[in-house]
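Good morning,

Attaching, inline, the backbone tokens for the sequence recovery test we're adding to the shared suite. The designed sequence is right after.
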């Protein structure tokens, strides 16, 4: 619907007209439009919720990890030419000993993902075993077109961090 409006000058005489275009809906139609926008808008922002680091390194690692933990570690650094191969062998021995007492691998869950710019990021995962959870942290770098592994670490001090986060001085209502 269009609305024509007659505008008067300060002397009260009609000197010109102004066409004012407006779209007027019934209240029920407007409510339907609002609902439609409410349902459609989140799809435009859905990409922001998904992973910002679009890589296959961690996916491949966990599929290999399920079959053989040590082989997965070796494959993780097979294309990393800047890392000394003897240091990988040394860490591999510690890695094997560390995981030998944890029991059977159950699965993994993402903990967090952080990025600096578009080329440097960190992915952290909770890796579940029968006896206790372990955290795996991957630091990834994309110098040109593909992501590569920069560092990989694992630790088991999740319970200490969880207890620290629950202390009274860290709680939101104390701020």
């Amino acid at each position: 619907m269009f609305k024509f409006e007659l505008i008067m000058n300060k002397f009260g005489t009609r000197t010109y007209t102004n066409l004012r275009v407006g779209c007027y809906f019934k209240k029920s139609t407007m409510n339907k439009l609002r609902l439609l926008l409410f349902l459609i808008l989140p799809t435009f922002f859905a990409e922001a919720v998904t992973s910002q680091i679009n890589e296959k390194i961690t996916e491949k690692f966990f599929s290999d990890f399920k079959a053989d933990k040590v082989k997965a570690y070796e494959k993780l650094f097979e294309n990393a030419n800047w890392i000394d191969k003897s240091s990988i062998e040394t860490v591999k021995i510690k890695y094997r000993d560390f995981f030998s007492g944890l029991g059977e691998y159950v699965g993994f869950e993402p903990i967090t993902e952080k990025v600096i710019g578009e080329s440097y990021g960190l992915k952290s995962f909770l890796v579940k075993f029968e006896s206790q959870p372990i955290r795996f942290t991957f630091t990834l770098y994309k110098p040109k077109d593909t992501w590569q592994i920069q560092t990989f670490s694992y630790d088991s001090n999740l319970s200490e961090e969880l207890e620290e986060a629950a202390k009274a001085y860290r709680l939101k209502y104390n701020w």
